[in-house]
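HUMAN: I'm a chemist; might I ask for a sequence paired with its structure tokens?

ASSISTANT:
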Amino acid sequence: MPIFPAIRSQQRIQAAFDHQRARDEIGHRIHLAFALAWCFLLAAPTTVVEIAVAPLYVFGLWRVLNVRRTWPAALLSPQFLLLAAWGLWGCVTLIWSPDRYHGMAELNRLRFALVIWMLWPVMDRRAWLLAALSGGFLLGNLSQAVHLLAHYAHLSWPDFGREPDRYSAWWDPVVGGSLLCGALGVHLAFAVRSGPARRPGTIGALITMLGILATGTRGAWIAGAILCAAAAIISAVAALRRRVRPWGAWAALVPCALFLAAAITIAPSLARRAEDARRDIAAAVERGDFSGYTATRLFLWQQAARAVAASPIGGVGIGGFRHWLEPAVAALPREHRPRSHAHAHSTPLHVAATTGLVGLGLAIAWLAACLRGSLRREPDGSRDPTALAAGAGLVGLLLAGLFDPVHVNAQTAALLYTLAAFTITPRPSPARPRRPGAV
């Protein structure tokens, strides 16, 4: 049952959008331009992302008199209310957090949640916004190609300062892998559908999978493989139900096949990363040595589980994970100690460890609201392809989040909340260009 059905009815939302376009068409176009710039620059370096959101916020608030009627649909949506509830609970946990300064820094990532509010007045152009987002990520993939070519050509420029076998260009390898898993979900959502968007979706998925492999991020490899397998299964089931042509099931296998082909192409790099993981795990199990990258993650997950067991309701307090971790690190021999981290290298474990089962429950409810919104049918019985793609992007991002706290890193948080904006329902009808001479 929808929240505030009288205020958030389809008729009221559509009337609010029609009103703002009729009253301020030029402002709507400028607002759209800033929103498109934001979506395109989401895949840019982090500094650019921090700057790009400012014009959207400033102009979105400046239009208050013309867009205020559209705001209740976003501000009273389950997506926004549950996120606000999670933020308020995070503020409560600061009471017992041993590191309130770092806790405030974590909560500060919620500044990107305001894009849900500021993007909403131009959601009648959501197909354009999603196309801009996809285009930005493809530009990021191009930068990865330049990084790879520069390495094999032994060029001193561009030098992104990455470790060997990690071609992530201007992204941090782990953050880049997580971001690309979100982009992969968006592309695959179109790749498995019939229609004109299938071909660009498939091409985008292939390029993105190559980018994921090039980052050398093993958690992103696992998340990408799961997404590809899920896309193949969904398309096969749809074909069996005769919702798509029979060859659609085979077409969905193409990304999986080319994923394997790409993996074989850069097999030496993948083999080295896999061997590093095997060696780290063996050292952790046999000698209690948690100094390796993979072993460090195992140690962080173990300590996060201990934090939940010690404080199941409210956790150790937002920002308090490093403080909780330090005694366990100090108890290990110096040569076996992992590097100290402020997070658990896993979104659900970090949320549970710092905000307890209450915080984890709110986060799960928020995700459920987003996915439900992405699957909700339109008044004509169809499903909105942009909402489906955004929901798939959220799934991809949060699969990668099993190995990385996507709500803590600024750039992944920005993508997380931007994708959530596309799942709000009821949605306005897509804007249609005016005919010449129309009033």
